[in-house]
Task: inverse folding
């Protein structure tokens, strides 16, 4: 079994936003499942991590929440992206790519010519 | 924007948390249900499916907590919880809470009250525009009465020309004026000012206008600016006063304005007028006489000029004029001029007393806080168990510390609120006291700054208390629990701290008591001072019949006034019980404003010797007998010493010793002398000494007797005359009859200082009495708190050692031995505290040297008395817990 990782601070918001962009309005369980599957179950998301993050995004105005009937006829809270959320996702994704490139460049096993 | 929005959401979250919690629980439940359903679909049995879902969730409660933290302002919510908890905990130990709150209330209340006075009188910026740029110039010379001899108009001119760092110099001549009010005539303190005065002082009117340069000089009409105080006192704040006429010095004067509230120095004044009201102030004497010093100088520093520049320029001018006008500056008297910030000079009389009180109050707070700290430590020891359990349940050390802090804050702030209530009462008392010393007493307020001070004080106390308590260190929890924290340990380190606090309390109390003792002895010494009068059954009353202008320029009025004084004397002498009635000025035990150089015939001054100066007083033949002033040599004045007969004087012992050491002065001749005589109606003729009187304490009981020359009332102008009435008993009962005689003969004259000699004496002692009483009450408070402190710590030590004492007793120690053991424990603390306290007092009492009279700052009687008192109280305080220890029943102790 692969090593389980805790979600790094700051990355979870990005994952949630991306999930909502790809799948459209979704409830907390759906988001958690999607993130775990996408990470091939290397990430572990418990309620104490997921729900505060959702609330934070909602407070910042990047997602909005509404109660709806779920596919199996259960009342559930659905989250969806707002316009501001879309912009934020684009911005954060861009920054993340840049950071990742930078870190990758740093960690590349290459010796400088003397 | 994003942050603002989030912040608003946080704040809203605080208020909507209940509804949101329900919402969240439903959401989490839905999540759990979906996860369970998914697990079942994957083939798990329902129970297992649910269990797995729960495991994956990581705990519902934790999730709710985490979301709550995100939702609201977690800090506020948990502090609110801490406050609720603190209140609950304190409700469960009401005795502890009450003792702490009351102790702190006394300490904080005393400090708040005294700080409000210190701030109002010493620290607050002056109400004058740019008041910090104002400086006061003080002209002094050696000898009694030389501390502040004012300036002459030519001198003011010299400084105007020679000191460019002084942008403006305001002339202000203190004066008394007879004001014809609705309830008869009164003399009021006033100031005669030049037109630039208000501009220099930076004061504005609240009504009407102020005097201007156009109001200077002769040929203008007299105008009056009321000070705020005078406006309130004489006219009840009547807003239609401007433009009205009032009668001052028997002249009609127009009120042109009312001044903003502002302190005056050296005296409070009710009115400010242009100079024209006093003929004398415009005379050539005043304007040209270099030694005719009647003016106070306040100046405003020029923009960019420093106090040091002003000082050196003033010193240079002073040195130059002293070289130039040798007649006006007797070199032996060392004329000098100090330039002092106006704010400082206004506070100078109050400063020492106030800082002393502030220090005493701070000491009381230290003792109170030490006591509270001890109580907290003891309570902390009993709460160790609770604290360890809380720590075990997951409260971090930071959180525990905060819990303690909140609890102490609740205590300290409750104490502070109660303290402010106490201070409110105290401030009123203190204001009355301080009004004697400072013209700024009415600026004393319990305002925002004072409350800020109080709040800062209570927060500081709370912080101190919280960090005294030791908490289990992070990581040491397990060992604490293993050690069985139910044991009330009161570990050694903590007890050492408690003991140190007790020692501090005792030491500080000793210092306070020493101060109180010295001040009390000062007061007793002072009331024992011999006034120089042989009896106290003497009633004095001042009846000034003439205005200065009348006295100086109207001989007919002077003669008429003397005739009226004689009629008053004759009628009073006929009252039942009256033994003697004298006429004179000023009255006994009051200082004279007229101080002149005097010389003896045939005696030259040594080079550099200061010219002797004496107070001029007048007396009729019966004055000495009526006042009880003993005649040591020669004869009193007689009715034949009249205008036109030979000039005679009587001098007092001090002057006799100065002018005629080792000789009999009777028959010798003396004369007034000095440049200033030119400006007075007093001649420099030789006068024969006919008698020598004993010394009297005219400058206050604490002042050395001054040289005095008495002139016959009949041979001198009627300066401010008064009557002295001596009765065989209960002279105070004569007041109504004597008053009605004055009212009938002089219905429009002011009647002042109707007081018995005993009352005058008391007036001189009473400021010291208030000082002594205040410091003594602080001292007594300190003793009580310290006694409770030492008893409390020993009682705690006994209860912590009950087991040990039980064992000792069962091994054969009798109760006497246990008693001695506990007494010894307290005795050591007491001895160390006493030692430190006496040492500290030795240094501290030097500071109050200036407030003492007749006792040395390290008066051995006081020090021994204080040490014995503290030791006695301390031993009694130790005895109570010691007795309890001695009564421990070993059988019961060992079983429990």
Result:
């Amino acid at each position: 079994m692969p090593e389980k990782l805790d979600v790094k601070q700051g990355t979870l918001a990005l994952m949630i936003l991306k999930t909502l962009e790809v799948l459209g309005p979704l409830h907390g369980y759906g988001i958690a499942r999607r993130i775990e599957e996408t990470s091939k179950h290397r990430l572990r998301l418990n309620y104490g991590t997921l729900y505060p993050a959702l609330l934070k995004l909602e407070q910042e105005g990047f997602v909005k929440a509404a109660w709806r009937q779920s596919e199996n006829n259960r009342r559930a809270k659905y989250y969806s992206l707002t316009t501001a959320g879309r912009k934020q996702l684009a911005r954060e994704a861009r920054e993340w790519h840049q950071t990742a490139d930078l870190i990758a460049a740093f960690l590349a096993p290459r010796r400088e010519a003397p | 924007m994003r942050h603002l929005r989030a912040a608003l959401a946080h704040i809203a979250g605080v208020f909507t948390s209940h509804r949101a919690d329900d919402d969240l629980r439903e959401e989490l439940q839905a999540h759990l249900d979906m996860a369970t359903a998914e697990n079942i679909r994957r083939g798990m049995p329902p129970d297992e499916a649910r269990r797995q879902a729960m495991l994956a969730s990581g705990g519902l409660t934790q999730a709710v907590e985490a979301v709550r933290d995100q939702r609201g302002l977690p800090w506020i919510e948990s502090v609110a919880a801490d406050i609720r908890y603190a209140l609950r905990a304190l409700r469960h130990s009401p005795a502890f809470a009450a003792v702490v709150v009351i102790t702190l209330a006394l300490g904080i209340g005393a400090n708040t009250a005294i700080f409000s006075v210190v701030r109002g009188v010493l620290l607050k910026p002056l109400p004058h525009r740019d008041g910090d740029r104002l400086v006061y110039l003080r002209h002094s010379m050696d000898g009694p009465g030389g501390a502040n001899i004012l300036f002459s108009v030519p001198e003011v001119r010299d400084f105007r020309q020679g000191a460019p760092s002084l942008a403006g110099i305001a002339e202000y001549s203190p004066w008394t004026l007879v004001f014809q009010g609705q309830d008869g005539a009164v003399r009021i303190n006033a100031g005669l000012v030049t037109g630039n005065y208000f501009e220099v002082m930076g004061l504005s009117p609240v009504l009407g206008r102020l005097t201007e340069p156009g109001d200077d000089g002769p040929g203008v009409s007299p105008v009056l600016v009321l000070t705020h105080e005078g406006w309130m006192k004489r006219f009840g704040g009547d807003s239609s006063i401007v433009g009205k006429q009032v009668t001052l010095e028997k002249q009609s004067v127009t009120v042109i304005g009312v001044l903003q509230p502002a302190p005056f120095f050296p005296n409070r004044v009710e009115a400010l007028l242009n100079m024209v009201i006093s003929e004398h102030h415009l005379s050539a004497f005043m304007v040209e006489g270099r030694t005719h010093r009647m003016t106070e100088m306040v100046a405003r520093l020029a923009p960019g000029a420093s106090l040091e520049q002003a000082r050196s320029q003033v010193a240079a001018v002073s040195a130059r004029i002293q070289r130039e006008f040798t007649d006006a500056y007797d070199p032996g008297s060392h004329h000098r001029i100090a330039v002092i910030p106006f704010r400082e000079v206004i506070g100078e009389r109050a400063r020492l007393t106030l800082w002393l009180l502030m220090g005493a109050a701070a000491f009381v707070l230290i003792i109170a806080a030490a006591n509270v700290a001890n109580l907290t430590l003891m309570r902390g020891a009993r709460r160790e168990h609770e604290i360890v359990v809380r720590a075990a349940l997951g409260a971090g050390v930071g959180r525990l510390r905060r819990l303690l802090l909140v609890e102490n804050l609740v205590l300290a702030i409750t104490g502070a609120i109660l303290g402010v209530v106490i201070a409110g009462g105290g401030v009123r008392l203190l204001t009355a006291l301080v009004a004697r010393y400072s013209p700024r007493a009415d600026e004393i307020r319990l305002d925002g700054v004072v409350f800020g001070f109080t709040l800062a004080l209570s927060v500081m106390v709370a912080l101190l208390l919280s960090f005294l308590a030791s908490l289990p260190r992070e990581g040491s929890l397990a060992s604490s629990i293993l050690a069985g924290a139910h044991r009330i340990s009161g570990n050694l380190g903590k007890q050492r701290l408690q003991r140190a606090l007790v020692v501090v309390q005792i030491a500080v109390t000793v210092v306070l008591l020493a101060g109180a003792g010295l001040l009390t002895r000062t007061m007793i010494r002072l009331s024992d001072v011999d006034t120089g009068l042989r009896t106290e059954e003497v009633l004095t009353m001042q009846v000034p019949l003439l205005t200065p202008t009348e006295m100086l320029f109207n001989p007919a009025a002077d003669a008429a006034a003397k005739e009226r004084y004689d009629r008053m004397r004759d009628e009073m002498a006929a009252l039942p019980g009256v033994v003697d009635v004298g006429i004179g000025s000023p009255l006994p035990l009051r200082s004279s404003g007229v101080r002149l150089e005097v010389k003896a015939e045939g005696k030259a001054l040594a080079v550099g010797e200061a010219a002797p100066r004496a107070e001029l007083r007048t007396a009729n033949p019966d004055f000495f007998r009526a006042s009880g002033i003993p005649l040591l040599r020669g004869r009193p004045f007689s009715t034949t010493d009249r205008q036109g007969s030979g000039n005679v004087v009587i001098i007092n012992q001090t002057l006799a010793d100065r002018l005629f050491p080792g000789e009999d002065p009777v028959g010798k001749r003396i004369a007034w002398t000095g440049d200033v005589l030119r400006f007075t109606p007093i001649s420099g003729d030789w006068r024969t000494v006919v008698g020598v009187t004993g010394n009297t304490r005219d400058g206050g009981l604490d002042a050395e007797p001054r040289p005095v020359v008495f002139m016959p009332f009949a041979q001198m102008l009627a300066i401010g005359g008064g009557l002295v009435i001596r009765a065989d008993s209960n002279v105070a009962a004569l007041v109504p009859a004597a008053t009605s005689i004055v009212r009938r003969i002089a219905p429009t004259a002011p009647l002042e200082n109707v007081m018995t000699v005993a009352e005058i004496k008391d007036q001189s002692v009473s400021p010291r009495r208030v000082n002594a009483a205040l410091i003594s009450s602080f001292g007594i408070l300190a003793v009580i708190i310290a006694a409770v402190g030492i008893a409390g710590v020993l009682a705690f030590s006994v209860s912590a050692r009950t087991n040990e004492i039980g064992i000792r007793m069962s091994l054969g120690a009798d109760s006497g031995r246990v008693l001695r053991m506990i007494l010894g424990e307290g005795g050591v603390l007491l001895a160390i505290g006493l030692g430190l306290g006496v040492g500290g007092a030795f240094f501290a009492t030097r500071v109050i040297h200036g407030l003492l009279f007749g006792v040395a700052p390290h008066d051995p009687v006081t020090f021994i008395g204080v040490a014995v008192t503290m030791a006695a109280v301390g031993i009694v305080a130790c005895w109570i817990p010691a007795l309890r220890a001695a009564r421990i029943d070993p059988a019961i102790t060992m079983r429990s």
